[in-house]
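Q: I'm writing up a methods section and want to include an example of the input and output format. Could you take the sequence below and give the corresponding predicted structure tokens, formatted cleanly so I can copy it straight into the document?
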Amino acid sequence: TSLRKVNLFLGTTEKHQIAVLDALGKKLENISLNSVTAETVELDFGNNAVGVYYVQVSIDGKVSTHKVVLL
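A: Here is the clean output for your methods example:
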């Protein structure tokens, strides 16, 4: 098996929401972090099928979306 991990740099704010969506926008996973001890969070896509996914990161009310392609 290949490693399929994504590292997100979150900075130093306290509240984070991370959502993993499939190519159709269906939410596959939702992660709430009230307190982050490290500046990066590792997401493991090892059990996901090959395809396109989106990672939505919400920090202090600001949302950014990042495309992840698994080959």
